[in-house]
Amino acid sequence: MTKKKVYIISHSHWDREWYMSYEQHHMRLIRLMDDLLDLFESDPEFHSFHLDGQTIILDDYLQVRPEREADVRRAIACGKLKIGPFYILQDDFLISSEANARNTMIGLEESRKWGQPVMLGYFPDTFGNMGQAPQMMVEAGIKTAAFGRGVKPTGFNNAVIDSDKYTSQFSEMWWQSPDDSKIFAILFANWYSNGNEIPVEKEAAVRFWNQKLADAEKFAATPHLLMMNGVDHQPVQKDVTEAIRLANELFPDYEFIHSSFDDYIEAVTADLPENLNTVSGELTSQETDGWYTLANTASARIYVKQKNTQVQRQLENMTEPLSVMAFQVSGSYPHDELDYAWKTLLQNHPHDSICGCSVDEVHREMMARYEKSLQVGKFLADEALQTLRKSIDTSAFPENSKPFIVFNTSGHQRDAVLETTIEWQRRPFSEGSPSRLFAELEKELPDLTAVTVLDSEGNELPCELVDKQVRFNYDLPDDRFRIPYMAIYLTIRVSVDDLPGMSWKALAAVPRTPAQKQADRTIVDEFSFTLENNYLSAAVNADGLVTVTDKLSNRTYTDLMMFENTGDVGNEYIYKQPEGGKALYAHHFPTERKVTVNSALTGEILVTQRMMIPSAADERLLKEQESVVEMRSRTARRNDELVPFTIRTAIRLDKNSRQLTFTTTVDNQSKDHRLRVLFPTDLAAETHLAESIFEVVERPNDVNENHWKNPENPQHQHSFVNIHDADGKGVTVANYGLNEYELLKNRKTVAVTLLRSVGELGDWGYFPTPEAQCLGEHTVQFAFSCHGKNDLYDTFIAAQQFQIPLVVTQTDRHTGTLPAARQTLAVDNTRYALTALKLNKANNDIVTRGFNLSNAEPAAVRISMPGYQAHEANMIEAFKDEPLKDTLAPGKIHTLRWTKK
């Protein structure tokens, strides 16, 4: 009889920050690493230690122990310290597609500076797993993944049918992406601590192994059993080799070895049975009771998610594309600075960080990291703009003009009503005292009554003067001391149509005298409080609800922008409405409407709804938190004290826009509650779509009621969620940093979470988090658009562009080597989402990346870049030995490297 083999892998799952601050965890990491390096020398039987799949641990350690770098390098070279392949252990769903890609790319690059990484997609504690992980791993040369959540193991006695995408009869399985990429996958069915703290005393060891072996064998597909010797922040078990020797004496039918993932994977893949199940797409514990999917972390501390979106959009969609455009002029690209910005951002992406489920100290430090990364991104973008504005020819504009350049750094064409501020006149401090200069410039403001905006061919663009003011500013020249000044600034609103993707267009503002002419039709009918353009009609009713008619498909949607407020006695991980709790709706409270902007270019109606809501949960909640009562068993309800909760929403429609946009501000002085905005659709549909990581995933509207017990079904999104009927008519709800939504059965309603206030971390103890109550003022943004059968993907692109502002830089009138208008990169199909335009670090080839927005249909896509030749590449930017594709398979991630022709 062949012995079963037990592979014991020593590790410590290292959350950089969580229920203690980063530095508290950091100091414990130093002790762990010290112990490891000493143990490698003192115990030759100690095989190796798995460093949790994240290379940042090495940086964190050597920041305090730089003198031990040689010891670290020796341990890695000898195979004692197993590193990589990622930079950090991210949360899949809450960071962007590119952030997921960069985490792998940077992790592999960092790993190879030290030695050979463990080529294992390591997701031990992510809160669900993205559906494109298999394709991303294949693209990175990784053939195996290990994860702890998302799949329900059913055991040998339960039938598993092949069509069941979310269950497996074994802890080993195949995992397949929407493009059919497939990898081997290992589920930590008994968690990544199933071999933790192995006893070295005989009786305790017998009890331990009898239980642990039975648990592992329940799900194992082969005679190779995996035992993970460690858990969260676990110190290394220094006597593990002694414990293994004892286990071999006590259980002669098994062979226990201290091992590594490399050895275990090699052994288990050689003995796989033919009936191994295949799980498909995203794995979010769909076949469970629904309480511990942890998807509500998408709404914990929404301010963190908003800031994350801002920084991601700055780096991915502004700084990098602008730097590529500038590189084509200067030959210089800020690789090192961008690496620094990306690493700083990624440090906020571990699952207990970006998920908002840590103590307050952690999230305070996160906001500082975000700001650091953002400011680097802005600095680099400004440098690129400085290069470009010097090179773009603006000599065609009149002598008295104020030229400025508009950049569309998204991948597709857009029409926009742009608001920007132009410096009109400057007086440096060298000409007099600041106060005198300020007063002199202010006297000139009344004469500035109107401006005209021209393109480089002299065509006049629709334009409005919005504001004018005098204020202080300064220049920081590269070659001399700073120059302070006072200046007149004009804020103008201009309609810029047909601006191609990845392009720029030079415009110029010139003064004019207002002409007496018939006023153009304005956007708002102030009598009926209706916003209207050629695409949409949006009537704001007296109760604040909105009725939208899509003029193109002739379909009307009613009762939109319905604000719902409910209690929450859960925690940062899980929303739990109090038993017997009832929702409060803003349209049942006093509502005011006011037209705040009304012109030919844009219209805006401000809706103010004055709710009164309970100030907090009742006194039972604190007692239940302190006594660590699991949230499902809590009896606390909302208290009887009511406080004002005023919701102010600016509803805006631009001249040529198919999006109705909303900017909602609340001053939250209540605790233990949730605010959502609801968009009933009344569409006959069984499924809906949402943007996820490198895919638009189709999800069922209803849960499996045989398993699901949670009354809520929270889901993750990035820039949008969509629902449409069999005729192709539907709606897309876009957002900015609002990652949680739910598709409600009632009227097929899209519900987007805007704010969630809770007072504790949750999980395994009581950790108060008063700052997670999110008291104070919050502003959120979302948008609504309609579509018919042929323009579904246009609304997806518009939703992504909702997060990407146009970039404007002012310049002067001069000759230049670049034309006044140019497109750097062209994508000819809105079924293709462009996620990156950057340079390859090794040789400065231009890199583009994107994906087919459909998981069901191939997409014919042509991408062109004047003067460059495209080559197929993988996600980590290595050339593929295959011809250039012009049709992308469903769900395909697509990377190209561009060389000069």
Automatic annotation (TrEMBL):
GO terms for molecular function: alpha-mannosidase activity; carbohydrate binding; metal ion binding. SMART domains: Alpha-mann_mid. Pfam families: Alpha-mann_mid, Glyco_hydro38C2, Glyco_hydro_38, Glyco_hydro_38C, Glyco_hydro_38N. Residues 297-370 form the Glycoside hydrolase family 38 central domain. InterPro entries: Gal_mutarotase_sf_dom (IPR011013), GH38_beta-1 (IPR041509), GH38_C (IPR041147), Glyco_hydro/deAcase_b/a-brl (IPR011330), Glyco_hydro_38_C (IPR011682), Glyco_hydro_38_cen (IPR015341), Glyco_hydro_38_cen_sf (IPR037094), Glyco_hydro_38_N (IPR000602). It comes from the Bacteria. Keywords: Glycosidase, Hydrolase, Metal-binding. Signal peptide: none annotated. GO terms for biological process: mannose metabolic process; oligosaccharide catabolic process. CDD domains: GH38N_AMII_SpGH38_like. The keyword Metal-binding applies. Belongs to the glycosyl hydrolase 38 family. PANTHER family: ALPHA-MANNOSIDASE 2C1, MANNOSYLGLYCERATE HYDROLASE. This is Alpha-mannosidase.
